[in-house]
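Action item from last meeting closed. Structure (90 res):
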């Protein structure tokens, strides 16, 4: 892999690690969900949700998909590849 590809992958990962907490926090506030409420929905510890919101933990792709389903957004929105919350279907 060349240096440019490595740089782009690192940039994408750093963008994802800051985007996911911001978008999760925004969607939780929009839906009036607390860490406790979301942790019950996701069957995980409250500290796990807190870690996702603060960026101390990075959710894996399965968690991203589960969160996307809960909030009705695409995984691409969560990962920062699009700013469109609800995609339009043609």
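Sequence:
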């Amino acid at each position: 892999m060349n240096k440019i590809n490595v740089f782009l992958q690192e940039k994408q990962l750093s963008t994802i690690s800051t985007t996911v907490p911001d978008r999760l926090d925004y969607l939780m506030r929009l839906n009036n969900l607390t860490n406790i409420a979301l942790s019950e929905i996701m069957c995980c510890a409250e500290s796990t949700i807190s870690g996702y919101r603060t960026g101390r933990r990075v959710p894996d792709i399965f968690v991203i998909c589960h969160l996307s389903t809960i909030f009705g957004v695409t995984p691409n929105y969560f990962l920062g590849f699009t700013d469109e919350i609800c995609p339009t279907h043609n």
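Note appended to the action item: The mean pLDDT is 83.
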